Amino acid sequence: MSAIDAADAVTRAHHEEWARMVAHLARRFGDLDIAEEAAAEAFATAVERWPADGVPPNPGAWLATTANRKAIDRIRREGKRDDKHREARTVYDDDPSEPPGVIDDERLRLIFTCCHPALAMETRVALTLRMVGGLTVPEIARAFLVAEGAMGQRITRAKAKIKAARIPYRVPSAADLPARVSGVLAVLFLVFNEGYLATGPDTGPVRHDLTGEAIRLTRLLRALVPDDGEVAGLLALMLLTEARRTARVSASGELVALAEQDRGAWDAALIAEGHRLVRERLATGVAPGRYQILAAINAVHTSARDVRDTDWSQVLALYDQLARLDPSPIIALNRAIAVAELDGPEVALAIVDRLEDELAGYHPYHVTRADLLRRLGRGRQSRAAYDKAIDLAGNTAETAYLTRRRDQLG
């Protein structure tokens, strides 16, 4: 077997097996440090041996066996086997008083542990990407523009807090599950959004590594909780957004607005999958949640062959429904864009201006206002709004787009 074939096999196994391995090791040995290091050592051993010995018939089983041996060796070296096993029984085992549930997957337990509400949101993101996604500390640090040492400390402190606070390694009870799933989805959505519109000046404007990882983890979560409508909604939202990725940045590195994108360049397979998920949720007759409504809005946009074919009345109706669930100023701002298409920019501008106190530091507010003022022929005010948007924008492609739009005003 060539070294390239072996390397491809290791990469494929890492994507498929990392979360399962770490979850199994954490459950067995009761220590996230041991789980992480043993899994990493197993893959390092595969990198060394598979090119010479060949890829084993069952790579996952080979890696799991190797990782278990690595963990046991470490515990023996440290002379803490009994302590670790006691900790595994008391901290990480199921609560014996908890009735067995329908959901019983070690990876799901790991996700809920990493996304526990006792941890700060930024810590949940980092820990999830490391323990569930298998990203390295340098990769996570680069993704969120944090020094590698600081990111390593963040992850180390998170694991220590889980141990010190005796955060249980288990799926939440049925009563707590909806709220906890919501917390997991918030983490995954945050990861996706950072990739969708990267905020770092020294990164690419779109980070496919992050959007791809968020989609992969959301697919995993959906496989583990297939009946959860909001998980399906978030997956559909991500797919319909990711489908437009190649059309979102021009050859010159400038952001391309939705209305100007080449719709023939959109990924038809991702759009079809996203639409199918939206239809499946609608067919249940269950009232949709926030992510499902956002996915439905994206489904309307991606159904139109041309921007002029967009069903803005349906978009507005969906935003009205979303505003009842989430009456936030950001939802009101997005709703105003649909209002502008139906009732004109003057009506929309009146709505947007009422949001100034709450959204003065939010650059999409100024982008929306600049566009409405431009459409109304109020060039000087539009230019000032573009200036504010450019000052607040952190994405290089978006800054280039806004600068061009501003300069076109003369």
Automatic annotation (TrEMBL):
Ranges of Basic and acidic residues composition bias in the record: 76-92
One Pfam family named in its UniProt record: DUF6596
Limits of the RNA polymerase sigma-70 region domain: 16-80
Keywords recorded for this protein, A-Z: Sigma factor, Transcription, Transcription regulation
Region Disordered: start-end pairs: 76-98
Residue ranges constituting the RNA polymerase sigma factor 70 region 4 type domain according to the UniProt record: 111-162
GO biological process, one term: DNA-templated transcription initiation
GO MF annotations, alphabetized: DNA binding; sigma factor activity
All copies of domain DUF6596, residue ranges: 180-280
Superkingdom: Bacteria
Family named by the database record: Belongs to the sigma-70 factor family. ECF subfamily.
Protein name as annotated: RNA polymerase sigma-70 factor (ECF subfamily)
